Protein 1
Amino acid sequence: MSAEQPDPRSLDLAVTLSETPNGPHHEFTLRAIRGKLASGSTVPDPQAALDAVLRNGEAVFFPEPGPPRLCTQQYGGPQQAVVTGTFGGRRVHTTLTLTDGCEIARWRALAPLLGGTAGNAGRT
């Protein structure tokens, strides 16, 4: 009997967002089964969050190893988001920041998951 492969569009993610290192935290969840929202999602716009995660795929959580990336040296602020849970059956534990151009782009790609929209860098 073969084990069933997890659906790559199923996810159960928890987000802890902090505006400043010692400031208050905001917590959100996003749950989906086979690409459809599941009960228990608490992000402000669950469908937009799910669309952002599925559009960006697993590479946003599990980057491929390779040569160092060249990123612009810019600082977007002290905000930080820790995302944990599962995506497509794989364990997720990643931290998003605004510390350079590459991280700012990753943050904006997932802004709906972080409680905001791509235009405001995810701020709530």
Note: Strands lie at 11-18, 25-33, 36-37, 80-87, 90-97.
Protein 2
Amino acid sequence: MAGTIISGVIFGLVALVMFGIGISQLKSKDPVGFYTGEKPPEKESLSDVNTWNKKHGTMWVIYGVCLVCSWICSAFIGDSFYSGIPLVVGVLAPIVIMVICHHILVKKYILTE
């Protein structure tokens, strides 16, 4: 039971960080980046900065929700090998989906000359 509580606190804190990233991107007036160290695109190179930021921010908020939901599923399964499956899927699958969505957004919103 202590392990479940500790993991819940950790997953909750990480989810709060993801919510914070998402909310800051949703409210940003300047274009946001996706990858750590990635330079955000210039305003002039985006067809719609507001939509770009909203879609990226929404991805991060949804990722935070996925983290919480995966922990809840794991907690319901209990202390067994199978309780790790929702945790792994809830952490890794959304990242892959987010990267794919980011590349789709790049193709859709970044203007090419």
Note: The chain has a mean pLDDT of 91.
Protein 3
Amino acid sequence: MNTGSDEPGEVVVAPDGAADETPDETTEGGAQDGQGLGSKAPEFIKARRALHLSWQVGVFVIGLAVVVAGIIMLPLPGPGWVVIFGGMAIWATEFVWAQLVLRWTKRKVTEAAQRALDPEVRRRNIVLTSIGLVIVIALVGVYIWKFGVVMPWKIKDQ
């Protein structure tokens, strides 16, 4: 089990090549040595195994509650994805797997943003949006021409 501590018998996961880097070099994921993988718990908590384990359980439960709230918000009103990523960030303070998922997600979001800002893609999106608007306006015009517009206050009881 990776608790992120440096106690004997514990496994500490470091990014590839982190042992060869100097403190001012960045790792493959773009994080500096101070932002490496592992537990972000205070040292006095990491020093005691039982306290650290209970700390991890607490972080997991709080992160799980936030992620579940985000999942509930997906079909309901609310910022579902933002809350889910907030829960993942809570988990990332303690668990390496969550840190890796967040790094991957940040990388994919950055790539998508760069693709969206590409002039050719923007031009295509503007053309498709314009075509969609013309189709919607034409459909609304045909509906109004065929059925007319009746204001709600002019509807008679039938």
Note: Confidence is low (pLDDT under 50) at residues 8-12, 17-34.
Protein 4
Amino acid sequence: MVKKNEISKLGRQDWINLGLKVLAESGVETVRVEPLAKLLDVTKGSFYWHFKNREELLEAILQDWVSRETDGIIQKVEAAGGDACAKLLHLFELAIQDDGQVENAIRAWAVNDSKAAAVLNQVDQRRLGYTKDLFLEVGFTSFEAMVRARMAYYSLIGEYTLGTRTNQSERLAGVRLEHIILTRRD
């Protein structure tokens, strides 16, 4: 039985946030109802107040990640304004603020799960498309814009995958140099 104070103090987003944390630390296999309930110090019944089943939680985790790490970043870039070159720099700077743990965990999850793979493919296409569009606005041809978008995106994903993260100031200097290189029109 679920206690009333459990329901009032614990929301759907709390389960999603913990699910993302566990996903990043240990992989999708460990995102299970009972261990999450123990971590939250509530009964399993509390989970079922917010979700029908584990699959619904996993879907919510994916959608939350898309909202934060794709839609949210694009919205921040657009809200900051400026020309396409300034937007690209802001995009690069925002992208390196993430440590890549959730990104890596979702990419690992997508290897064996068609739903996660479909969401990841949509995210990759949306991110590449947005970045390409900014390079088009800078004045590059469609081919040049896509090559530049891939170089920027694959560089970031590669950094996450390889785990070759330097300190934040070095990362910032690195993306600023990448920006100069990729937006230069010689």
Note: Residues 1-7 have pLDDT under 50 and may be disordered.
